[in-house]
Amino acid sequence: MTMVESIKFTKLFINNEFISSVNNKTFPTYNPATLEKLADVAEADKGDVDNAVYAATKAFERGSAWRTMDASARGKLIYKLADLIENNLKSLATLETMDNGKPYCDSFFDLSCAVDVFRYYAGWPDKIHGKTVPVDGKLMTYIRREPVGVVGQIIPWNYPVLMAAWKLGPALAAGCTIILKPAEQTPLSALFLADLIRQAGFPAGVVNILAGYGPTAGAAIANHPAIAKVAFTGSTEVGHIIMKAAASSNLKRISLELGGKSPLVVYHDVDIDEAVAIAHNAIFANHGQNCCAGSRTFVHEKIYDQFVIKAAEKAKTRIIGDPFKDGVQQGPQIDEDALNKILDLIESGKAEGAKVEAGGTRPTDLQGYYVYPTVFSGVTDGMRIAREEIFGPVQQILKFSSLDEVIDRANKTTYGLAAGILTKNIDVATKFAHAVQAGSVWINCYDAVTAQTPFGGFKMSGQGRELGKDALHEYLETKTVTMKILEKMS
């Protein structure tokens, strides 16, 4: 059986059933490494979203199996889903690599992280506590935390199942019901996940997964009057659209995890080889297709020239090619649009005076959407490559002289998702960490994201948080209950 023949699930998942779309529409999904069509996938539109919302609404009704389920039982279902994912890691990793283009070992790692996320949230359902409040007078007040209801979740293509886990985990722990739309570029692993959700024993309608396009299915979710909350991960541009739709429909709650142009500061007291390695992984991991990628590498003037030479050497040794081949570190970009955007920004860097130290072109011997790992030196703050999110394997190395200067320059952006600093000086590290405007700050490491810690951005990098206890609050309402009592006891 070929890999393409192993694709089992291509239809919409509504009410625990795989069904065709209302209009029987489909769309193709392709392997970005070979340009081969993998499958035709059922395409959701407004009518399908309506049907999924109806199923989710029924599943959330008072007296339903989901609403009357013990909190501990809800946790056991999430644990079971985590086990099923772990048992199907190879199949899911194969689908992710075919559909996304990332190296198979990276897909395997991402899915292991998804298991960790589900297991973390599996422990939460019976620990979402209310509290009593000692109010004045002959009154007793207690506070309940209740699920917001039906939620829509729209996820990106760069970490398909992992991003689904970030969204589904806290929503299920809170007791919500869900309509999840995977990115149109990478629907296959999310639809496989739907079958595991069914196998785990979640009641019908609790999770519905609809593949489709943003302007149709995504817009229908964002505008639906029966959806109480939308969670979105993606571009800042689309974040604006989601926010407007939420406001103009029913003032639904939103959480947005958007773009970034994250600074990584390299102080002069570092071990240069170690710093080069950290900075390399900060930008080139996942082909640079990472919202919190350390894409602005600020290097102190005392070590700048040496750092540039070593960074370029490391980029030139990065192995690109068939993502299923052992040793390959970088596969193709996700699609032609993404590739063209990256190449356009590379050309703008050249035109504006930055120096290409490595890469800067496409390979001529590979068929898919490949681009060489690229390193620019001589980058200044006003260049497009220093201001715009490239979302590709392009490292921009900027020079700085003082800590105060680099803090100001790091903050001079509309984004604020993440930041990092490499230094042996604890005073330098803490001053930067407290002054930089970013939701996550990493010291002597980068992209150290865990299930237990909140993740999200300042400014136009979004609002709300993923992961950790904080993510639960995005899916819970607070209800105050006050009753009159005959006698008050202190």
Structure, briefly:
The chain is α/β, with parallel strands linked by helices.
Would you mind describing this structure in some detail?
By secondary structure, this protein is of the alpha/beta class. The protein is built from 15 helices and 20 strands. The strands form five sheets. Strands 14-15-16-13-12-17-18 form a seven-stranded mixed sheet, sandwiched between helices. A six-stranded mixed sheet has the order 9-8-7-10-11-19, sandwiched between helices. Strand 1 (12-14) and strand 2 (17-19) form a beta hairpin. Helix 1 runs parallel beside helix 7 (214-223) and helix 4 packs parallel to helix 5. The longest helix is centred in the N-terminal third of the chain and has 19 residues, at 104-122. The chain starts with 11 loop residues before the first strand and ends in a 6-residue tail after the last strand.
